[in-house]
């Protein structure tokens, strides 16, 4: 087991840093952060390629990845545990819990990304990093608005809708009933870049919850199951 552990590279700590700079078109950002630069230089481009295609086919794939990261990170940290299928030893994994089943989607997309990444660099990129990269790419692609139409764009429109009373839920309208949250709505709606900046920082913070480092964790062969060897 120790020998196995010694082979494991765990990498998630870097994913959050990558989230921070992922929206820059700069070709230099992987070099600045560079976690996979030596181990798998193509990794992030491979993820991005799959995400761009998936979002162009259905922008909902982007939303799915953003929510996937949230649902993974809020239960025992960002460890890709939400991806695990049931087994006889673990018949009711997170995936089957009410917050996830049946509404969490995108598991096949994660499989497709993992397959593409494994084809490029077998056994190098963790499933948790794949989720973080996919969510980062989704945020960037959807906020850029390229190839997506307005309802699918990730922007501050929601807050403008709260101000114009064109929101769906009682909980949306309730944001205007306290001075503190009303102020946030007004700032998010009216100050260009204000919400975007906070969203990015929040995603980076979220992607850092209990990340595994050093010899913790493992690089799964298949994101749906832990490796037995
Ligand atoms: C405790 C706080 C939250 C609650 C109670 C909540 C609840 C929900 C619910 C009920 C849905 C609809 C699911 C369905 O299709 O039936 C949803 C969708 C979604 N949530 Fe949340 N959410 C929360 C926080 C968040 C956060 C922090 C994020 C982003 C980081 C997020 C991102 C999303 C996205 C992107 C969708 C749409 C997913 C898709 O289209 O597949 N949510 N959420």
Automatic annotation (TrEMBL):
Site described as Transition state stabilizer, located at: 67
The Gene Ontology terms for molecular function here are: heme binding; lactoperoxidase activity; metal ion binding
Q: Domain Plant heme peroxidase family profile: where?
A: 30-157, 158-227
Q: Which SUPFAM superfamilies match?
A: Heme-dependent peroxidases
**Taxonomy, superkingdom:** Eukaryota
Kindly list the cysteine pairs connected by disulfide bridges. Answer: 40-121, 73-78
Cofactor dependence: heme b; Ca(2+)
Q: Provide the GO biological process annotations.
A: hydrogen peroxide catabolic process; response to oxidative stress
Q: Which Pfam family, any one of them, does this sequence belong to?
A: peroxidase
What detail does the entry give on cofactor binding? Binds 2 calcium ions per subunit.
Q: What InterPro entries has UniProt attached to this entry?
A: Haem_peroxidase (IPR002016), Haem_peroxidase_sf (IPR010255), Peroxidase_pln (IPR000823), Peroxidases_AS (IPR019794)
For this UniProt record, the keywords arranged alphabetically read as follows: Calcium, Disulfide bond, Glycoprotein, Heme, Hydrogen peroxide, Iron, Metal-binding, Oxidoreductase, Peroxidase, Secreted, Signal
Functionally, this protein is described as follows: Removal of H(2)O(2), oxidation of toxic reductants, biosynthesis and degradation of lignin, suberization, auxin catabolism, response to environmental stresses such as wounding, pathogen attack and oxidative stress. These functions might be dependent on each isozyme/isoform in each plant tissue.
Which family does the UniProt entry place this protein in? Belongs to the peroxidase family.
Q: Can you name this protein?
A: Plant heme peroxidase family profile domain-containing protein
- Record the organism: Triticum turgidum subsp. durum
